[in-house]
Amino acid sequence: MSFSAFMAFTLPTTEAQVSASIDAQLRRSRDFRFTNPLSVQSQNGSAQPGEDLTPDYMNVLGMIFSMCALMMRLKWCAWIALYCSCISFANTKLTDDTKQIMSSFMLSISAVVMSYLQNPAPMTLPGMG
After folding, report:
1. Where do the structural domains in the chain lie, given as residue ranges?
2. b/e map 67-93, b = 16+ CB within 10 Å
3. What does the UniProt keyword field contain (predicted)?
């Protein structure tokens, strides 16, 4: 296709075509709806001003304590990780991502199981024995 044929194809040539394209542009601009900036922020993953971040904090703490329990063989870290995961699971909203919460929960359960499989003796508190 030559350039002149392309230009003739894309540009409106008559007054009716020009007014039709202007009407279409005006319709598109009227269809635009303004959104609340807070709702746009929540879709991007950032927190809203009144949103409770306890489940997120507990999820991160549970993962940290689980990894410490698995790597350092500390039973009390595994139990704290399980406690944090239960708090995170209990405080989640319906719209939150369940995969991440369940993976944290399973990681903390595996930390408890693995710490007792490696050493089945009862847990001693840090500094007590």
Report:
1. 54-118
2. ebbbeeebbebbbbbbebbebbbebbe
3. Membrane, Transmembrane, Transmembrane helix
